[in-house]
Amino acid sequence: MIEIQQHDDNKHGSFEAFIEGNRAGQMTYTWAGDERFIIDHTDVEEAYNGRGVGKEMLIAAVEFARKHAKKIIPLCPFAKASFQKNKDLQDVLI
């Protein structure tokens, strides 16, 4: 099971993934005003590649955006490609 934790300092933030207490990945973002944030980097630890870690972090970001009526700008290549593949997530895009 993948556990996602969010950290936010009102300028930058991240969604960190943990599997069995071990850090499996991190997706970072930067606020672009009050209404949107930019996903700028996604990193998955090599030992956890292929286990859906990146997708779970992206889903957490989308759920956060929906809950707080925010929009996402995906600059990170992984996030951008994931949004293109998953039409059901695109409602949070600018």
Textual characterization of the structure:
With 94 residues, this protein is α+β, with helices and mostly antiparallel strands. The chain has one domain: Gcn5-related N-acetyltransferase (GNAT) (Aminopeptidase). Helices cover 26% and strands 40% of the residues. The chain has helices at residues 53-67, 77-85, and strands at 2-8, 12-19, 22-31, 36-44, 71-74. Strands 1-2-3-4-5 form a 5-stranded mixed beta sheet. A hairpin with a 2-residue loop joins strand 2 (12-19) and strand 3 (22-31). The N and C termini lie far apart (31 Å). InterPro entries: Acyl_CoA_acyltransferase, Gcn5-rel_NAT, GNAT_YJDJ. Residues 7-94 form the N-acetyltransferase domain.
Q: Number of DSSP strands?
A: 5
User: Tell me, what's the shape?
Assistant: globular
Tally of DSSP helical segments? 2
CATH homology-level superfamily: Gcn5-related N-acetyltransferase (GNAT)
Classification by helices and strands: alpha+beta
Radius of gyration: 12 Å
CATH architecture: 3-Layer(aba) Sandwich
Q: What is the makeup of the main sheet?
A: 5 strands, mixed
CATH class: Alpha Beta
InterPro entries: Acyl_CoA_acyltransferase, Gcn5-rel_NAT, GNAT_YJDJ
Protein name: N-acetyltransferase domain-containing protein
Organism: Chryseobacterium fistulae
Domain N-acetyltransferase: 7-94
